Amino acid sequence: MRASSVVLLPHAPSSVAVARRRLSSELADSGVYESIVDDASVIVSELISNALRHARPLPSGQVRVCWVRHGDVLELEVSDGGAMTEPRRGPGTLSSLGGRGLGIVEALSDGWGVRHEDGATTVWAVLRAPGTTGENGAAAPVRTHAMVPDLSDFPDLLDETDEDLCNPTRNGTPASRAYPA
User: Fold this and answer.
1) Counting Cβ atoms within 10 Å, is residue 176 exposed (0-12), middle (13-18) or buried (19+)?
2) What is the C-alpha to C-alpha distance for residues 74 and 31, in angstroms, rounded to an integer?
3) What single string gives the DSSP state of each residue in 5-68?
4) If you write DSSP's letter for every residue of 83-144 in order, what string do you get?
5) Contact, 52 vs 13, CB < 8 A?
6) Which of 80-84, 150-154, 157-161 has the lowest mean pLDDT?
């Protein structure tokens, strides 16, 4: 099953909760395991929070949040107007007041990266998002842990142009920097 959305939200703290609620609702409705919905919600919260804290809004004054589910793979993206520094994982020490966001994203996802294009900076993450029913329609076990997918099994995942709602101009742009978990 394919689930996808693109949401433009104000460059404001209230956008974190709005995005979490919508993402959680849509993923649950599409049959994604509750534990994966929770992980995806935390990832989106961290990415939006980082965009609000460290970056400018898009020229429209907003941030763009996007998610696309291709089979058992979920791609999450947050785009903003960029910042003076490159998004990177901070040290996140016990005594620090911040700096743990991308470390959390790295821990919960199968990989993440940064892409710069058309005046926007996009931080993306991918994670395995199996559904609660198997291919034969039988219910899957109630609680399973997501396994790291072999992304080589999905060679066109990031190259689809006709159905790519998150970024219709992805082809023809420079390769993004990726950070595998």
Assistant:
1) middle
2) 13
3) EEEEEESSTHHHHHHHHHHHHHHHHTTB-HHHHHHHHHHHHHHHHHHHHHSPPPTTSEEEEEEE
4) -SS--------TT-SS--HHHHHHHHSSEEEEEEETTEEEEEEEEE--BSB-TTSPBPPS--
5) yes
6) 157-161
How far, in whole angstroms, is CA 9 from its chain's centroid? 15
User: Please, are residues 155 and 68 in contact by the beta-carbon 8 Å criterion?
Assistant: no
> Which residue in this structure is represented by tokens 């520094």?
85
Q: Please tell me what DSSP assigns to residue 148.
A: P
Q: What is the Cα–Cα distance from 33 to 59, expressed in whole angstroms?
A: 36
Q: Report whether pLDDT(37) > 50.
A: yes
Q: Which token pair is 123?
A: 């931080």
Q: Tokens 């994604």 map to which residue?
A: 32
Q: What is the mean pLDDT of residues 107-118?
A: 92
Per DSSP, the three-state class of 153 is helix
Q: What is the DSSP string of 165-181?
A: SS-TT-TTSPPPEEEE-
